[in-house]
Amino acid sequence: MAACGADTTFLLVDCAKQHNEQIRxxxxxxHRNQTGxxxxxxxxxxxxxxxxxxxxxxxxxxxxxxxxNFYKAAFGAEEVFLLEDPGGxxxxxxxxxxxxxxxxxxxxxxxxxxxxxxxxxxxxRIILTVADPDHMFARALGAxxxxxxxxxxxxxxxxxxxxxxxxxxxxxxxxxxxx
Length: 179
Hints:
Elements: E1 9-14, E2 24-26, E3 30-32, E4 38-40, E5 58-61, H1 64-75, E6 78-84, E7 91-97, E8 100-106, H2 116-119, E9 124-129, H3 133-143, E10 146-154, E11 157-163, E12 169-175
Parallel strand pairs: 5-8, 9-12
Antiparallel strand pairs: 1-2, 1-9, 3-4, 6-7, 7-8, 10-11, 11-12
C-alpha cells in the first residue's frame, strides 16, 4: 500500500452490507491540480483537463469548531483550508494528517447533510493507516474518543476501533507484514 505524506493513508470503507460488498477507496500520493488544491491519486480523468481524481471524506458534525479542536488534538491534524461563518453557523475545514486529507463541516439537514448524532449512528467508518497505531489510538482516547475495540492483531492487520465524540467510527492501524 502506498503511503500518503510521511506514513499515513486513508481508506474510506462503506459499511452498507446491502449487496454484501465493501467499497474501499485508497487516497494515494499528493500533487496539485491547476487550481492549486491538493489531489490524491495517480489517475487522471482525460475529460477533466488532466486533473487528478481523488476522494476525500467529508464528515458532517454537530459543533464543527469543537470537532476541529478534537481532530487536531486526537490525530495531530493540521488545517489546509478553513472557512468560518461570521454569523456563528459553524465552519468548514479541510484537515491533513501527515498528508492524508479529509473535510469537516457543520451538519445541515436542510441540504441533506446529517451528522451521526442526527442519524443515530454513522454510515461509514474511516481507516487511518499509521506506523504506530498504539500511539495514535491512545492519543485519540486521551482527546475524548471512546474505544470500540482495542488495538490487536487480526485478519492481517494491527488495528483498533474507536468512536470520536461526533459519532464517526475510526479504525486505526496498519497491515501486518506478510511472511
